[in-house]
From TrEMBL:
GO terms for biological process: carbohydrate metabolic process. It is found in: Cytoplasm. The gene is fsaA_1. It holds the Pfam family TAL_FSA. PROSITE patterns: TRANSALDOLASE_1. This is Fructose-6-phosphate aldolase 1. GO terms for molecular function: aldehyde-lyase activity. Keywords: Lyase, Schiff base.
């Protein structure tokens, strides 16, 4: 199971990279624009933080020619191993095929159906970004969609990985993995929610209080010295 951070905020990326075993970072035009900073420099800064971990960056072009040109520029200017995010639509399918023929990593994005994922997989996309919460908000069944895509890939020996994206809460993330996805990308606030549990906080505080009654402020290391 891969955990990827969905942000272009450097403070969040630094924190997540230090505290959690993340596999990389995903961005999109909205996320990048939100930072209101130099585009190329921000990508350099992210790479400096995460090192050899994955960086997924979406194209801005809308025709397949523009998408391919954007992808080639990203590979040339940022990193040869960058994952170029391509929208899963008619123009995108051609762009994915062209980029994969040049041995460039591709992430298909804005995926809502097994039909899209099927074409993405045939085009050779490395990851298929399925928009979980956006499907839920549209009265679709995201867990069923993820299951169908993973089954379709397994039956046809397609190596593309389902990458869950677009989340409202941690339960949706877990449901994505249980449905067969091999990776998720989520914003830092959702990642942070995995560490919050009132029952856990109460139990830890109880342990600390009981310890202090007998040993005061001494730590286990102090007592073993």
């Amino acid at each position: 199971m891969q955990l990827i951070l969905d942000t272009a905020n450097l403070d969040q990326i630094k924190l997540a990279n230090e505290w959690f075993r993340i596999s990389g970072v995903t961005t999109n035009p909205t996320i990048i624009a939100r930072e209101n900073t130099d585009f190329l420099q921000r990508l350099y800064d992210i790479k400096n933080i995460i090192g050899n971990k994955q960086l997924h960056v979406q194209v801005a072009g809308t025709s397949w020619q523009e998408m391919v040109a954007d992808g080639l520029a990203l590979v040339e200017k940022v990193d040869r191993d960058i994952f170029v995010k391509i929208p899963s639509n008619f123009e995108g399918y051609r762009a994915m095929k062209e980029l994969k023929e040049k041995d460039i990593h591709v992430t298909a994005t804005v995926v809502y159906s097994p039909e899209q994922a099927y074409i993405d997989g045939l085009a050779g996309a490395d990851y298929i970004a399925v928009y979980y919460n956006k499907m839920y908000n549209s009265n679709m069944d995201p867990a069923k969609t993820v299951r169908e895509i993973t089954q379709l890939f397994e039956m046809n020996h397609i190596s593309s990985k389902v990458l869950g994206a677009s989340y409202r809460n941690t339960r949706q993330v877990i449901d994505t993995f249980l449905a067969g996805a091999r990776a998720v990308t989520l914003p830092y606030p959702i990642l942070e929610e995995f560490c919050k549990n009132a029952c856990v906080s109460a139990a830890v505080e109880g342990f600390a209080n009981d310890w202090r009654k007998v040993y005061g402020k001494k730590t286990v290391k102090d007592l073993l010295a």
